[in-house]
């Protein structure tokens, strides 16, 4: 069957080319269906408990996606008539942002004052034209001391202010809605910057984060993909010294990417930050297939073989290993289906499909192209073979030192794995070059972090929020929360109720406390609600029958662990102090705080499955349970060591890195497969002893292994350049792991094989069915 | 040749069409205003009115909450109407009474009696655009209709149920209004409102109000039994159910002042 496939490719290359083009064009047409979803919610599956909790809270209160304009006058003060006028204008304009439902700023803050029996409810800055310098100290004192504004809308020193726009995306066309909002925001930004040259303006908020997902990904696509192509071309030309081979490889890569992405479009996939790295990953993996076939092909040609025959030989000896490595790689990536986060499932599935497409193309279209292209070979000495000889000699003579010292190194690195901290800080998903990250860091340094936690406290009784017991509980909780070291701001209903009580008693500060009976609280709130303007109502804090209220805490940027611990403390407070109320705690940051851990747990199951499957495949391929078991060590060690090294590089693992072990497993297996199969071939089929077998394995696959490793490492290092940290970290750790895998396969596996095979001669506990090579083992031990 | 003629023929035809419509019909603005005036005119002379209002508030998950209010209004010939609302439910606001003298232009005069505090408070606020008792009705949706509050533009005639309606666009004069415009459907037989669409400050559709169950009182004044307000952005809605309409029971200015507010139960 496979011989016939080779025949067709070699004898009718034009037809193979034409059929491939037709199929690829048909597949690629699906790419028109591919859209980029930039909502951060795509990171969570529908059954994710934190997402469900958050969504149900959003249905009760209003949605809280937002855009924050951060205004920082260069002279260092917000409180001048000019700057307040600018904020007033920006606030007014912000109502024009599509899907905006609310705009909060210090100028439209609903200020209440009492005058005799009058209650005056008014914007803090109603008419900026009437402002004079004399008003400034009063306004500054007012704003920077109000618990609702301080650290939320205005910095305590009064030098940075925020205009916060609440956006309620209808979610009908998620692809178009965020860009629609952002383009209006950019327009306002441009206007503002032009009118206020002395002010720095930054943009943060969940909407800007969503947009950054899209922008960072598009940026990657336009910079990383071309870079990757360049590296592939250079690598092949320099390492294999063939232009035609490079050209054919490029065609295979392009066709693979087009059909992978096209099929993804046909089957209804959508793109997200992580899954948009599919082309880079597929490209990297597709190169390996081509390199193996090219290497053998050129080896045969240099031996003086005729072109079609050389190609046929190359295909014949590479078919099984290339199929096997493709299959194991696909299995590794398919293990990502266990991930809790849909974008990573998509990435896994798309890459798995891409790898298999690359396999098919590299045994059909690739030989056809090589037949069509002119191939010139100068018979020459293989210098690197000499290098491989030296390496194998080194490994063999130092095997007694290498085995224990490599074992020590492996263990020493693995020890550090548990020291990595679990953290998914979505602000840090973007590196410092991304404007969203700069803005959010600036906001964190001057006002408050982006970490927010929403706490809904339900009485289960209609109008129950007016009861003094409830208000006291909420007040005590809010005060307790404010006293926590990580807290920047707490927004709570009780601040409003206290202020109203004071207003109702002629602004007497002694009445800045909660009212003593339920009716008072209810009537104050009724009065207050009747005097609020459009969009600034209390519906985002109270549910419809006033049985529950929502407290929003804003915190310094916290690690996932810190957030989960904080969440536990919040629940504990209510368990200890107010067990009668139903408490629900949720927020986007909490969702991210939990996802790393959830994902690691689910990925561990995935990796176990993949490992069993891959080891099973290897056992079959190597026709030996024994070698299947031995392969476990060099297959598992690299990922473990990689995470150990990661402790020294970054020390934080999260969503992105939790999938690396699974995806690298399938790739690092390739090295082991090639090395072990050649070793076994020498031992079993050629009857060599373990030392000779090691030499043989080095000589025959050593060069191909380091070339493919070079390409893979280069490819994943390209991905590591992404400004989107999820992809960058994933790329870097994968590159490290693949590099380690080669080191392990070269320096640890051969001494291990020699050691085990020498031991086994004495007790004869060999699972291998073919034992003929074992007997002469002891004689070569001294070599 | 043809290209040169084209702009000229355009201008000519525009001129002809323009003068033709000018000659045969009043402008859309005038027509809109005229319909608004007829609407106001057709309901004049009700003098005083009392009714019972029940509000049913629902959020997007369908959770409900009920408010009950008694309403008294007094017709004013040269100013906006006076009205007194007495809250019965929820129970913790029972006895709270709200007095308002609406004015066609500028802020209304508003007082609130808080029984828990036993005091009348004047509310000095320009805001009429916030939600009324947490419902989807803004306070400005419930105040009396006055010609001077809007400018108008007639859009078209179209059927609304069995009736034929005039569709009129209204632009609020008050800069503190929560809307940029409203579109009203007014039937041509009795000048009753059938539907209003509200557009928010950025011109996006915000809410739709529909009127149902019109009944005629005293042989002249049409009042609905049900007003349904749906918010398209938050997916919340409020039903306003009217009952027990009474007219011309001899209420006068003395029933609508700060003292009457305290007495209202």
3D architecture notes:
The complex is a heterodimer of chains A (783) and B (265). Chain A is α+β, with helices and mostly antiparallel strands and 783 residues long. Chain A folds into three domains: 2-38 and 212-377 and 384-415 and 593-773, Multidrug efflux transporter AcrB transmembrane fold (Up-down Bundle), CATH 1.20.1640; 64-204, 2-Layer Sandwich (Alpha-Beta Plaits), CATH 3.30.70; 448-586, no CATH class. Chain A has 25 helices and twelve strands. In chain A, strand 3 and strand 4 (118-123) form a beta hairpin. With 265 residues, chain B is α+β, with helices and mostly antiparallel strands. Helix content of chain B is 18%, strand content 43%. Chain B has helices at residues 2-24, 28-42, 139-142, 258-263, and strands at 48-58, 64-74, 82-89, 97-101, 109-114, 119-124, 150-160, 163-172, 181-187, 193-199, 205-212, 215-217, 221-223, 226-231, 237-247. The longest helix of chain B has 23 residues, at 2-24. The model of chain B is unreliable at 1-7 and 15-23 (pLDDT under 50). Strand 4 of chain A pairs parallel with strand 6 (119-124) of chain B.
Gyration radius of chain A (Cα, Å) is 33 Å
End-to-end separation of chain A in angstroms reads 44 Å
Largest interface pair: A-B, 50 and 47 residues
Oligomer: heterodimer
What spatial order of strands do you see in the largest sheet of chain A? 2-5-1-6
Which term fits the overall shape of chain A? Answer: elongated
Low-confidence regions of chain A = 761-783
Helix/sheet category of chain A: alpha+beta
Give the beta-strand count of chain A.
12
The helix/strand series of chain B, from N terminus to C terminus, equals: HHEEEEEEHEEEEEEEEEH
Sheet with the most strands, sense and barrel status of chain A: 4 strands, antiparallel
Query: Number of DSSP helices of chain B?
Result: 4
Strand content of chain A: 5-15%
């Amino acid at each position: 069957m496979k011989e016939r496939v080779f025949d067709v490719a070699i004898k009718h290359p034009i037809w193979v080319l034409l059929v491939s083009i037709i199929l690829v064009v048909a597949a690629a047409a699906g790419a028109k269906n591919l859209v980029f979803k930039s909502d951060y919610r795509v990171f969570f599956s529908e059954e994710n408990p934190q997402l469900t909790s958050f969504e149900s809270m959003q249905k009760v209160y209003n949605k809280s996606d937002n855009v924050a304009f951060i205004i920082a006058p260069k002279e260092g003060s917000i409180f001048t008539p000019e700057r307040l006028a600018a904020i007033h204008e920006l606030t007014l304009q912000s109502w024009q942002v599509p899907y905006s439902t609310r705009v909060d700023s210090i100028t439209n803050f609903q200020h209440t004052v009492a005058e005799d029996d009058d209650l005056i409810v008014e914007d803090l800055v109603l008419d900026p034209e009437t402002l004079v310098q004399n008003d400034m100290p009063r306004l500054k004192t007012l704003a920077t001391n109000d618990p609702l504004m301080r650290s939320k809308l205005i910095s305590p020193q009064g030098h940075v202010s925020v205009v916060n726009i609440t956006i309620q995306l209808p979610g009908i066309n998620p692809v178009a809605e965020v860009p629609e909002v952002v383009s209006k925001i950019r327009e306002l930004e441009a206007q503002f910057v032009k009118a206020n040259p002395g002010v720095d303006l930054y943009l943060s908020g969940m909407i800007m984060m969503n947009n950054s997902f899209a922008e960072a990904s598009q940026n990657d696509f336009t910079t990383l993909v071309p870079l990757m192509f360049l590296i592939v071309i250079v690598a092949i030309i320099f390492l294999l010294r063939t232009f035609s081979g490079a050209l054919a490889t490029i065609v295979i890569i392009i066709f693979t990417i087009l059909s992978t992405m096209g099929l993804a479009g046909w089957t209804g996939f959508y793109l997200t930050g992580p899954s948009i790295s599919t082309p880079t990953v597929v490209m990297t993996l597709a190169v390996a297939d081509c390199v193996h076939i090219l290497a053998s092909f050129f080896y045969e040609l240099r031996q003086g073989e005729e072109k079609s025959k050389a190609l046929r030989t190359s295909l014949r000896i590479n078919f099984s290993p290339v199929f096997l490595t493709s299959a194991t790689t696909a299995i590794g990536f398919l293990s990502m289906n266990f991930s809790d986060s849909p974008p990573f499932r998509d990435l896994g599935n798309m890459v798995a499909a891409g790898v298999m497409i690359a396999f098919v193309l590299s045994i059909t279209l690739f030989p056809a192209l090589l037949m069509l292209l002119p191939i010139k070979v100068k018979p020459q000495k293989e210098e690197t073979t000499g290098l491989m000889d030296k390496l194998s000699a080194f490994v063999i003579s130092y095997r007694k030192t290498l085995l224990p010292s490599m074992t020590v190194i492996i263990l020493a690195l693995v020890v550090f794995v548990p020291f990595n901290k679990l953290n998914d800080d979505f602000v840090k998903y973007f590196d410092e070059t991304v404007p969203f990250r700069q803005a959010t860091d600036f906001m964190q340094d001057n006002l408050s972090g982006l970490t927010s936690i929403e706490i809904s406290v339900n009485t289960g009784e209609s109008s129950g929020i007016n009861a003094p017991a409830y208000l006291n509980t909420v007040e005590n909780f809010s005060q307790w929360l404010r006293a926590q070291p990580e807290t920047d701001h707490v927004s709570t209903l009780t601040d409003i109720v206290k202020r109203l009580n004071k207003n109702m008693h002629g602004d007497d500060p002694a009445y800045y406390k909660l009212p003593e009976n339920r009716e008072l609280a209810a009537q104050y709130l009724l009065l207050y609600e009747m005097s609020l303007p459009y969009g600034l109502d209390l519906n985002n804090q109270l549910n419809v029958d006033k049985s529950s209220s929502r407290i929003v805490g804003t915190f310094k940027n916290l690690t996932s662990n810190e957030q989960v611990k904080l969440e536990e403390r919040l629940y504990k407070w209510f368990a200890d102090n107010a067990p009668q109320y139903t408490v629900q705690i949720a927020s986007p940051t909490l969702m991210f705080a939990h996802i790393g851990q959830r994902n690691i747990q689910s990925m561990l199951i995935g990796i176990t499955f993949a490992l069993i499957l891959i080891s099973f495949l290897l056992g079959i391929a190597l026709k030996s349970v024994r070698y299947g078991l031995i392969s476990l060590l060099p297959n598992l060690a690299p990922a473990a060591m990689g995470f150990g090294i990661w402790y020294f590089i970054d020390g934080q693992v999260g969503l992105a890195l939790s999938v690396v072990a699974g995806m690298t497993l399938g790739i690092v297996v390739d090295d082991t497969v090639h090395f072990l199969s050649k070793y076994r071939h020498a031992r079993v089929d050629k009857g060599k002893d373990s030392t000779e077998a090691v030499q043989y394995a080095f000589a025959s696959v050593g060069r191909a292994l380091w070339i493919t490793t070079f390409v893979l490492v280069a490819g994943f290092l390209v991905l590591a350049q992404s400004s989107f940290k999820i992809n960058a970290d994933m790329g870097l750790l994968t590159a490290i792991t693949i590099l380690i895998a080669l080191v392990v396969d070269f320096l640890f596996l051969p001494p291990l094989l020699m050691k085990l095979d020498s031991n086994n001669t004495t007790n004869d506990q060999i699972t291998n069915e073919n034992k003929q090579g074992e007997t002469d083992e002891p004689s070569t031990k001294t070599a | 040749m043809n290209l040169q003629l084209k702009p000229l023929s355009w201008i000519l035809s525009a001129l002809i069409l323009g003068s033709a419509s000018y000659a045969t019909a009043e402008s859309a603005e005038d027509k809109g205003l005229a319909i608004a005036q007829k609407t106001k005119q057709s309901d004049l002379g009700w003098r005083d009115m009392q009714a019972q209002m029940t509000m049913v508030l629902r959020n997007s998950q369908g959770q409900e909450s009920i408010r009950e209010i008694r309403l008294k209004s007094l017709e004013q010939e040269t100013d906006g109407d006076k009205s007194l609302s007495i809250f019965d439910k929820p129970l913790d606001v029972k006895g709270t009474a709200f007095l308002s003298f609406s004015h066609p232009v500028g802020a209304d005069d508003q007082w609130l009696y808080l029984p828990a505090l036993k005091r009348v408070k004047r509310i000095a606020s320009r805001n009429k655009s916030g939600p009324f008792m947490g419902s989807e009705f803004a306070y400005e949706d419930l105040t009396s209709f006055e010609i001077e509050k809007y400018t108008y533009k007639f859009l078209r005639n179209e059927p609304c149920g069995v009736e034929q309606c005039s569709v009129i666009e209204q632009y609020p004069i008050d800069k503190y209004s929560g809307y940029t415009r409203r579109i009203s459907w007014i039937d041509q037989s009795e000048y009753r409102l059938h539907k209003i669409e509200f557009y928010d400050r950025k011109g996006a559709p915000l809410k739709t109000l529909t009127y149902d169950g019109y009944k005629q009182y005293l042989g002249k004044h049409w009042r609905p039994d049900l007003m349904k307000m749906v918010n398209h952005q938050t997916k919340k809605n409020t039903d306003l159910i009217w009952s027990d309409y009474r007219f011309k029971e001899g209420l006068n200015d003395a029933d609508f002042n700060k003292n009457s507010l305290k007495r209202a139960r």
